[in-house]
Amino acid sequence: GGAAADGIEIMLNVPYRYRAWGQGTIITDETGREVGYWKPEDQGIGDMVGFVRYAPGILNPSEHQVLTLIAGVRVPTGSDPDVWDQESQAMPMGDGSVDYGFGFAWVRDWTPYFRLHAKANYWLNGSFTDEDDYKTEYGNEVLATVLMEADLIDNLALRMGVSHYNHKPDKVEDNVREYTQFHRYLFNLELN
Questions:
Q1: Distance separating alpha carbons of residues 85 and 21, to the nearest angstrom
Q2: Of 101, 102, 128, 179, which cross-links 72 as Cys (Cβ 3.0–4.6 Å)?
Q3: Are the CB atoms for 157 and 151 separated by under 8 Å?
Q4: Cα separation of 123 and 102, whole Å?
């Protein structure tokens, strides 16, 4: 990432992913005889995300708080769902769609050593049409996080907080795909 102008920052996230399907699947032939075991496991470059962050300066700096507006796009640089393959055990590193996100981040300094962070992002997820012309429309996502940050030493801080992740259901040919709508609460503990 880098600063493009006063109050504007541009960031690029290129994830390297490792994926594994824990349970696996028994492979049988046409007679029902077991001929193998498929436990997909793969790694590679995932979908790339570009962000623009803008701090509009609408809050009073003397109150020790900053508001940042965020816009992003996720592009399908990872392998798409058509890569599923039992022989090579390949797994997709991306979802094959272009997605658009927006949100905000707010930081409030309580003391010189403690800060409160609140952020929320909403992703408008796109769709992917596979090689058999089945169209998957991905459900939109909301991620909200509240964190408390404490400085430990110079350039090292401890962050603790909680996140709520909500994914709306995916649809294939206008039919809701089972088990694709979910809520998750995540506890965050990180060094920054």
A1: 13
A2: 101
A3: yes
A4: 7
Apex 130 CA angle, 44 and 100, nearest 5: 65
- For residue 99, what are the contacts with CB-CB under 8 A and spacing of at least 6? 73, 74, 123, 124, 125, 126, 138
Provide CB contacts within 8 A for 108, sequence distance 6+.
64, 65, 115, 116
Q: How many CB atoms lie within 10 A of CB 128?
A: 22
Other CB atoms within a 10 A radius of the CB of residue 187 amount to 8
Quick: pLDDT tens for 130-187: 888 888 899 999 999 999 999 888 888 899 999 999 999 899 887 888 778 888 888 8
State which amino acid sits at residue 98. V
Q: Are 139 and 170 in contact (CB under 8 A)?
A: yes
**Residue at 175: amino acid letter:** N
For residue 39, what are the CA distances in angstroms to 122, 144, 157? Answer: 33, 33, 39
- Report the alpha-carbon distance of residue 134 to residue 126 in Å, rounded: 14
pTM: 0.73
Place of tokens 């498929």: 38
